[in-house]
Structures are given as C-alpha cells and as structure tokens.
Specification:
The complex is a heterodimer. By secondary structure, chain A is α+β, with helices and mostly antiparallel strands. In chain A, 17% of the residues lie in helices and 33% in strands. Chain B is α/β, with parallel strands linked by helices. Chain B has a single domain, classed as BirA Bifunctional Protein, domain 2. Chain B has six helices and eleven strands. In chain B, the strands form two sheets. Chain B has an eight-stranded mixed beta sheet, sandwiched between helices. Chain B has a three-stranded mixed beta sheet with strand order 4-3-5, with helices on one face. The longest helix of chain B is centred in the first third of the chain and has 16 residues. The chains are: A alpha+beta, B alpha/beta. Chains A and B meet through α1, β6 and β7 of A and β9 of B.
Chain lengths: 130, 240
C-alpha cells in the first residue's frame, strides 16, 4: 500500500500536505480509495466555509458506497478540486496527486504536525498479506 | 473480541432498521460494542440510494401504497432497490481497517460472501465487471450498497432467497435497465432453503471473508446488555 512519507494522515484516512503558503491540501489515501471502489461522484464543499476539526466537509460516492470526508483541523475552505466534478475517478487513479479534494487554510497550521505521520498511519491500516 | 451477529425472524419496517443501525453506529464509534452484524428481513420497501432519484421507480406512489410497499430514501451508495420478506439483509456495523481481511476491499468482501453462500446451495454466482453485486445466469441475486461514516459501515447487502420478485418490477433495479433479478427460489424451486438456513451460511462466510469470528445471537437468545439497550422492545426478533 502506497503511503507517501512527506504527508500527514488522519484516522479517517485523509492525507494532508501543508504547503509553504500556509494552505493545506487534503485528499483520501490509497487504502481509502481501494475500499470504496470506482468513484462516481464527489460533493465538494463551498470555498470560504469555516469548518471545525472533524466536521464533515465532502461526500464521495462510488458505484456502491458513500463516504464522508472530514476536516483534519479547523480552518477555512480555500479551494476545491473542480476537476473531480467531471472526473471523480482521479481519486482512484492518483489519490495523492490529481485526486486531491480540497484545500484548507488552517486556523493554526501547527495543528497539522499533530496528525499521524506516515509510519503511524501505516501501522494503523491492515496489511493485505495473509 | 468476537464480532456479534444478531438474527431477526420478524420482518422489520425499513425505518426501524435505519434507526437501529444509527444507534449501533454511534455505539461502535464509541467502542461500546464490537463490530456487529444484523441479519434481518424487511417489510416491503423500495429504497433510493444517496442522491437517489425517482426515475428508477416505475410504479406510481399510489400504486406502491396500494401494494403496501413503502418508499424510503437511504443514505447508502448505490441506486434504487427493493426489500421484502424472503430476502436476507445484512447490515454490518464494522470499523473498517481493523482487520487484515479489510485490505481486500469491503465491496469485494461482501460480493465474496454472497458468491460463497450461493455455492453452498448449488447456485453459481459471480462478479460482473462494472456491475457490483453477485450475479447468476438468471440475474442478480445479491445487491450491495453501503455507507461509511467515520469509517464505520452502515447498510450492506441483500440476498434474495424467496422474496417475491414482483417487487423488483416496481423499479429499475440498481438503475440497470434490462437486467434481471433472481432468487434461490427461482433457481432451485422446491429445493430452495429457508431464510434461516441461508442466514447461517452468510454468517459462516462473513466470518471467514471479513476475518471476524462471530458470536451469534439467534432470535430467541438474550443479547449482551450493551446491545439490548440499543434494541427497543418495539423491535421484535421473533417472528409470529
């Protein structure tokens, strides 16, 4: 399972990347997209919305599943990935890249450092080997 | 800790099933209960998926009412479906990602449970690319649609044992026009097992495929206190 080391993670399988401009980019992990199957629809948040940590901010749907996406920390929605409206499958094909979901300007960027690091997240998800 | 499986013999109205799942979901998130799977039947109901549109429903609201079929909106993924007595519904309330078997993908696992269960009764079921669920040469035998809230699952799968297939004529099942729906009764005739027999096999395969040993509570068995408190007396488990 692909778990990039430079990102932070949540227990609800979001990844977070804090950019130099103080804005965090958020998506779902490879593990998460695999659980959901081929995605068909993404309901994106509105830019400018203020969210608290753990708030539901988006809903993603696959052929058979619907799942909520949460805010990892409190902040303001800065941007959403409009491409997903027509190409939700980008989350499946490139979950850590083109499949990013939204950007958040955190109220306190230092909170991002308190999220799981790659090792901790990798320990949390199950191995496929049996 | 083992997962708990609760069996119901009395068909449950759809709304009661949803309310029960929501209570179990909250309890599971709080770790007040282990992973828990409900095995039940519903009274006749047509349900729409998340963002569900009405265009998958062929029958008018008046016609549904006349037939005693409810219409409900569900928060699960997937499209329109029908539930009724004679169909075994599985509602697993699972924390996904806590077992190795989860890495295979939950959707895949649910399909596998249906395929293995059908095989136990001599029916060959299989996956079809891009069309989730379990299929036979005569049509779809198990439908899947689930919801994840904080990575705990809601809704799940329905497996047609001897459900009145006319219920599916009221809709375009899963939004797939021209696709048929089947049941064990249609395929096996007089050799069709009971819902209770199918439920036993679904539970066995659930345990193996999802990697969770099950402690089963049959309809007459007392529930652990943590669970009994979530199940109002108004929700009977024993059929009349």
């Amino acid at each position: 399972m692909n778990v990039p080391t430079e990102l932070r993670y949540t227990k609800t399988h979001e990844w977070v990347r804090l950019d130099k401009n103080g804005v965090a980019t958020i998506g779902i992990t490879d593990f998460a997209q695999e659980q959901l199957g081929d995605l068909t629809y993404v309901e994106l948040p509105s830019v400018g919305d203020n969210v608290e940590a753990q708030n539901e901010v988006a809903v993603i749907e696959s052929v058979k599943a619907a799942a909520d996406i949460y805010a990892p920390v409190a902040g303001t929605i800065a941007e959403v990935n409009k491409k997903l409206e027509d190409q939700p499958e980008l989350i499946n094909s490139d979950p850590f890249g083109e499949g990013w979901i939204y950007k958040l300007r955190p109220d306190d960027p230092s909170e991002i450092d308190m999220l799981l690091d790659a090792d901790a997240y990798e320990d949390m998800i199950p191995d496929a080997e049996e | 800790m083992n997962a708990w499986a609760v069996f119901f013999d009395a068909p449950l109205p759809y709304a009661a099933g949803v309310a029960l799942q929501e209570r179990l979901h909250a309890a599971r998130l709080a770790d007040a209960i282990p992973d828990t799977i409900l095995f039940l039947e519903h009274t006749p109901v047509v349900t729409l998926g998340q963002r569900g549109r009405n265009d998958g429903v062929r029958a008018s609201p008046a016609r549904l009412q006349e037939l005693g079929v409810e219409l409900a909106q569900a928060s699960r993924g997937g499209n329109v479906t029908f539930h009724g007595p004679g169909q075994c519904v599985l509602y697993p309330i699972l924390k996904l990602g806590s077992h190795e078997a989860d890495a295979h993908g939950y959707l895949h696992n649910l399909e596998e449970i249906a395929i293995r269960t059908a095989a136990d009764f001599g029916v060959t079921a299989y996956r079809r690319a891009g069309k989730n669920g379990a299929w036979t040469d005569d049509g779809k035998i198990a439908a899947i649609g689930f919801r994840l809230k904080r990575w705990v699952t809601l809704h799940g799968m329905s497996f047609n044992v001897q459900v009145d297939l006319a219920g599916f004529d009221l809709i375009v099942p899963c939004g797939l026009a021209g696709e048929k729906v089947s049941s064990l009764a249609r395929l096996l005739g007089a050799r069709c097992p009971t819902v209770a027999q199918v439920r036993e096999r679904l539970a066995v395969h659930f345990a193996a495929v999802c990697g969770r040993a099950l402690e089963i509570f049959p309809p007459g068995a007392a529930l652990p206190p943590a669970l009994a408190g979530l199940l109002p007396a108004a929700v009977p488990r024993i059929g009349k």
